[in-house]
């Protein structure tokens, strides 16, 4: 599924942010955050398949993604101000949103689209 490629990139960008935070390289955090907030999406046909599979859960799934966007935008703002503690706070909020979606949907997603748990 194309979503996996999107997720791999998100994982890499989050790792890069971790490295930038360690170096207090706020300019780099500011540069990386928008790519996390407005990450690539799978092709339209795949999105349709995913949304059809989600059914009534589509709203919850999308809300996790919206949380990633809001938190990553907050992280960019904090980085622009050079506010390290707030960058770290927002980074944790991004991670919470990633984890929330993974805990709820990753296994059922794999089971449905790859036929395994
Ligand atoms: C709206 C739901 C959702 C959100 C939000 C989300 N993910 Fe995922 N993620 C998934 C699903 C579903 C999979 C399983 C994809 C698959 O197995 O093909 C996944 C898988 C992954 C993987 C494993 C990819 C692989 O190689 O198997 C990584 C890494 C990942 N996500 C990173 C992130 C990061 C970092 C964030 C937050 C910035 C995030 N994800 C936010 C739904 C989400």
From TrEMBL:
One of its GO terms (molecular function) is electron transfer activity. GO terms for biological process: electron transport chain. It holds the Pfam family Cytochrom_C_2. Transmembrane segments: none annotated. InterPro entries: Cyt_c/b562, Cyt_c_II. It comes from the Bacteria. This is Cytochrome c. The lineage of its organism: Bacteria, Pseudomonadati, Pseudomonadota, Gammaproteobacteria, Lysobacterales.
């Amino acid at each position: 599924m194309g979503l996996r490629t999107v997720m791999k990139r998100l994982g890499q960008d989050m790792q890069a942010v971790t490295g930038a935070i360690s170096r207090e390289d706020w300019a780099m955090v500011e540069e990386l955050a928008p790519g996390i907030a407005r990450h690539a999406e799978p092709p339209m046909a795949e999105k349709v398949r995913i949304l059809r599979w989600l059914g009534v859960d589509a709203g919850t799934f999308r809300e996790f993604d919206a949380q990633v966007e809001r938190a990553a935008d907050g992280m960019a703002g904090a980085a622009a101000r050079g506010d390290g503690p707030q960058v770290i706070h927002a980074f944790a909020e991004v991670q919470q949103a990633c984890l929330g979606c993974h805990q709820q949907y990753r296994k059922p997603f794999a089971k449905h689209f790859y036929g395994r748990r």
